Structures are given as C-alpha cells and as structure tokens.
C-alpha cells in the first residue's frame, strides 16, 4: 500500500524513528486531536508498512531492513557527535585502530582529526574520506564488495583483509541492542566483518546512541560482554547496566 503522508503522519513517523515508539495519548495531546484520529493515523501508517501497532501506540518497523543511510545520518546528530567526542578522547595518540561501518563511527572519525601518529584501518569509505584531512593519520582501506548505499565494504575479502591486522582498538557501531545485551545487525556479510574486527582488536569499543535499545534486528553479532566499553548518550536500563558491571564492560554516557 502506498500512502501519501499528511503533515501530521509525517511528524508521527519522524517521532517514531527518533524515539523508537509513539503513544496514542501523547500524540493526541501533542497535535491537539482526538485519540480516534491518532489511532486512525497509526493504523494507516502500519498498513503502509511504516510502523507496527502495539498496545497503546506503535513502534518503528524493524527486523527486516535498516533505515536508509541518508536518513540515519540525520538522526540523533547531537547524540552521535557527543558519543564521537567521548570515544575519541579515550583513543590516545600513537595507536592503531579499526573503525567499521556506521554513522556513529563516522562521528568518531571526525573527532580524530587532531590526533597524532595514528593508524586507522577501515571498511568505511566515509571514514577514510573524513580522515584524509588529518596528515598525521595513516589510513588503510579494506578491499571487498562496495555497498553503494552507505560506502561500506563487506564480504569475505573484507574479513580476510581485517585478519591481517592486530590493532590496539576496534571501534564498532551496531544497529540494535537486545535487552539481554546481545548486539544485533541486519546484514550477515557486515556482521562477519565486525566479528573479525573484534577478534583482531586488543580492546573493543562500541559506539551506540540510546535509540538502538528500542530497535531489533535479525543477526547476532556479539554480546556486550565481549566489548571493553560502550559509549552511549543515555544511561542503560538498570538490568543491563548490572550485567555490564558483572562482565566488566565499562559504560560511558556522553554529555551533549
């Protein structure tokens, strides 16, 4: 079904993509319309494939495909910038690192422009293009199949390339975090590369804004127990925070 979105429906969809979930009562109050009007909007958005209806509201439809790259790049800009700064501050001069795919790892790259004597290995063409502006950064770009949608390089050749390195830090992004701490993504080829990055890094840093806690994806990459630290923009749920403490996974909440 193709739906020509009204202004209100477009706004509802934007809120759902930003927050992960919308509630009927809150939307009715926000837009000054009846609960019945909002329910009708949500039903139409669900029938068009944009949302999944849940009790009392709706959630962004996930589990099949990721949000488009251009749309992801514009989402949660302030949070990603803060996370990028916090993570970059934990990466010293004179070190080696791998940065994988994702708009948040690109935010980390932007904060590395003044770092000295660093080596960055990446399968993210956008990261490489950002770091060209740092003359003190040696850039190693992986081979592999180019994913035109986001400038990512994936596939067996990319995984084999990553296996040639042993770096000080691996900085990875993710599409979703399950309540039990599992890290989830959509593309199995991308996940294989990220697993290789984890294996080849002495320390692993996860960069993920809080919206990832409200999403789901079908492919398991790893567990938070396998990373040394997570950099995010909001406190983790108490149960997950307690698990991170048990695992020895440091949690850094970036200030915007």
From TrEMBL:
Highest taxon, organism lineage: Bacteria
Keyword line: Repressor, Transcription, Transcription regulation
Pfam families the record matches: DeoRC (PF00455), HTH_DeoR (PF08220)
Coiled coil: none
PROSITE patterns documented for this protein: HTH_DEOR_2
One MF term in the entry's GO annotations: DNA-binding transcription factor activity
SMART domains: DeoRC, HTH_DEOR
Domain HTH deoR-type: 5-60
Name of the protein in question: Transcriptional regulator, DeoR family
Organism: Gemmobacter aquatilis
């Amino acid at each position: 079904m193709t739906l020509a979105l009204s202004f209100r429906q477009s706004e509802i969809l934007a809120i759902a993509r930003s927050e992960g979930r919308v509630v009927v009562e809150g939307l009715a109050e926000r837009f000054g319309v009846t609960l019945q009007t909002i329910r009708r909007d949500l039903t139409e958005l669900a029938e068009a494939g944009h949302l999944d209806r849940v009790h009392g509201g709706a959630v962004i439809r996930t589990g099949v495909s990721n949000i488009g790259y251009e749309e992801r790049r514009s989402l949660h800009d302030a949070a990603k910038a803060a996370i990028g700064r916090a993570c970059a501050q934990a990466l010293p001069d004179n070190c080696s690192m791998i940065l994988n795919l994702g708009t948040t790892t690109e935010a980390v790259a932007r904060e590395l422009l003044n770092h000295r004597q660093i080596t960055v290995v990446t399968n993210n063409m956008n990261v490489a293009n950002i770091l060209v502006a740092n003359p003190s950064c040696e850039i190693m770009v992986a081979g592999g199949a180019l994913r035109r949608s986001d400038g990512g390089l994936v596939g067996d050749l990319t995984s084999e390339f990553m296996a040639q390195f042993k770096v000080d830090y691996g900085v990875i992004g993710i599409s979703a975090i399950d309540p039990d701490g599992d890290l989830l993504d959509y593309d199995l080829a991308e996940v294989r590369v990220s697993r290789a990055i984890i294996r080849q890094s002495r320390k692993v840093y996860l960069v993920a804004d809080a919206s990832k806690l409200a999403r789901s994806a079908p492919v398991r990459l790893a567990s938070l127990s396998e990373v040394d630290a997570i950099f995010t923009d909001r406190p983790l749920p108490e149960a997950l925070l307690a698990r991170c403490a048990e695992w020895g996974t440091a949690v850094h909440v970036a200030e915007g």
